[in-house]
Amino acid sequence: MKTKAIISVLLIGLVVLFGCTSESPTKGETNNQTDNTTPTNNEINDNTDTTPESSVPTKIEINVGETAKTSKIEVTVKSVEKTTEYEYCVASYCNMESAKEGNIFLIADVEVKNVGADQVYFSVGDFSATDNEGSRYNTDVSLSEDAIEMITQLYQNQKVSGKVYFEVPENAEGLKIIYDFGNIITGTDLASWEVE
After folding, report:
1. N or C terminus of the chain with fewer C-beta within 10 Å?
2. pTM (two decimals)
3. pLDDT digits (tens, 9 = 90+) for 76-96
4. Under a CB-based contact definition with an 8 Å cutoff, are residues 39 and 168 in contact?
């Protein structure tokens, strides 16, 4: 079990390091529109601006069922379920997974699609959940056949659908599902779906 966890952490680290895109995500189809009306610093004057770019991440907030997208990848959180237990099956063996006392599971049904020209790597670790207290919850590893694989390679127009699992305190408020489009080299760009 420890070996599986170590391998998962290493694989997620590689995906984060070589993330799939550095663009800011947009909602739905608006990504194809370009605004050329704002001049750059070099167009305003001839001096070269050496001020570093802001490290504040771009974050869009959309509703469950809507799609966040860049020119390379589309991510949709189709639905989110709250439950204290869920049944998972592997081959013909089924079992119940129960949340720890005082916790619940958030089970997000998601879809990730490569809409770019090149292959991309998608990691379930790109998803997280947050609450209005600022706590962050990473995905739980689920053995369920409907869970998204830890790391998936997607070629042009390929998509993957499945469940992403989180265990959170049952009294957590303002829960959101977050997808991180960025990486540690190019910065972090986030999409956020509010859980009702």
Report:
1. N
2. 0.71
3. 999 999 999 999 888 888 999
4. no
